[in-house]
Amino acid sequence: MAHLEQDRWKQAAADSALALVEDGMVLGLGSGSTAARFVSSLARRISDQRLKIVGIATSLQTEQQARNLNIPLTTLAEQSQIDLTVDGADEIVSGILCLIKGHGGALLREKIVASASKRMAVVADETKIVDRLGSLVSVPVEIVPFGWEATQRKLDALGGRPSLRTHSDGQPYITDGGHYIMNCAFGPMDNPQELADRLDHVVGVVEHGLFLDFATEALVAGPDGVRILKKDPPRSRAADR
After folding, report:
1. How far is 108 from 134, CA to CA, in rounded Å?
2. What is the pLDDT of residue 236?
């Protein structure tokens, strides 16, 4: 696939999310290439329509982008709840809208913002759709630097084959929160919730990139336009009989 074509899809998904934004909203501003396109499009709409919104950024990079574009920012100290968060994803399972996020390095702040949001709309191109999480990408796991080797051994014992994320010079990648990231190659998952529960109990782990119950909708662009994916309704017990 040509990068230009994928870039057009990302832009189409980002632009379609503008229809979800209403005057007076508190918005969570996501991180990553598609979310950055949404932030840029949002700034143009604010300017053109005199839209009054405030944003909460999920990364220092997004915060700087928003400030450069004159998007008003606030904090979770000032706002107890976010009306809508628009963010990207590295993988999406349609139907249940489970995600892997964090390959841009902002998973901790992204999850904090998502957890404080009434709605989370994911913007992505169709290459991010998978049948099972872990099919295309590893699971980023944010860990504290102290004793990281011990945490790595624990993650390896879970089957993650963890590798420390580093820069090109070999130095560890440092998140906005001052932590390291382990890229864990668990492979395609039959039960991501079980893995999430295990990761939640590993001492030294700050947060992981399994976003299993946050997204309320996904706007996914491809050659046929933008599809809006919603969560499938829960099955009734009667339907299982």
Report:
1. 19
2. 46
State how beta strands 139-143 and 205-208 pair.
antiparallel
* CATH at 104: 3.40.50.1360
Edge to edge, what strands does the sheet with 82-87 contain? 54-57, 26-29, 82-87, 117-125, 217-222, 225-230
Say whether both 216 and 205 belong to one domain: no
- Is residue 231 in a domain? no
Annotation marks residue 110 as catalytic:
yes
Q: Are residues 83 and 31 in the same domain?
A: yes
Mean pLDDT score, 170-183: 98
**Chain segment 118-168, per-residue pLDDT in tens:** 999 999 999 999 999 999 999 999 999 999 999 999 999 999 999 999 999
User: 132 Cβ partners below 8 Å, 6+ apart?
Assistant: 93, 188, 189, 190
Taking only the tens place, the pLDDT of each residue in 204-229 is 999 999 999 999 999 999 999 999 99
Cα–Cα distance measured from residue 82 to residue 72, given in angstroms and rounded to the nearest whole number: 14
Per-residue CA distances from 156 to 33, 127, 160 (Å): 30, 28, 5
Active-site choice (110, 126, 194, 207):
110
Other C-beta atoms closer than 10 Å to the C-beta of 99 total 29
